[in-house]
Amino acid sequence: MKFDTLSLTLGAATALLAAAAVSLSMGAGQDIDWLPASAARETAVAAGPAALPALSAQALTLTWQQSMFSPDRKPDLVSGKAQASSLDGISLSGVIVDGSSRWVLLQLPQKRRLKLAVGSTLDNGWTLDSVTPQSATFSHQGQTRELRLPLLRLPPPSQVPPITLPHVPTP
After folding, report:
1. At 116, which CATH number?
2. What is the domain count for the chain?
3. Tens-digit pLDDT profile for residues 145-161
4. Which residues form the signal peptide (predicted)?
C-alpha cells in the first residue's frame, strides 16, 4: 500500500490533535500561575458631579425670545392696552417647575398664549406670586386669585346595555 503526502499530513495532524486531547483530559494546563503580590495602591476618592450654575432670570428670558430650533420665532407680543382688572377669561393651560425656576402657561381671552415667570405681572396688573404643580396664585391690590389646571375626567359609563348575542343551539 502506497501513502501519498496528503494522507501522511492528515494522519500526522490527527495524531497531534489526539495527543493534545489526551493531555488536556489528564489535566494539562490547569495550573494557575499568579503574578507576585505587589503593594496596595491608594485610590483617589471620586468626587460627585459638579453642580450646574444657577442661571439668572434675565438669562432664562432669552429662551422665550429666540429658539434654536425655529429661527423665525418672534417674542410674545405685549399689548399696551389696559385690560379688565380681573382674571376672567384667562385659563391656566400649563405649569413648568424645574428646580427653582417656575413658569405658567396662560390662555388669554383673545386666544393668545402667554408664558409667565413667578414675580412677573400681567398687562392688567395681576402678579404671579406662587406656582404649584396644579395651580398658580395671582395677587392684585390686596386680592388673591388662584387658577387651577383643568382636571380631565373620563366620561360617565354608558347607560346603554351591552350587545348580547342570541342563543343559538349547536347543531
Report:
1. 2.30.30
2. 1
3. 999 998 888 888 888 88
4. 1-28
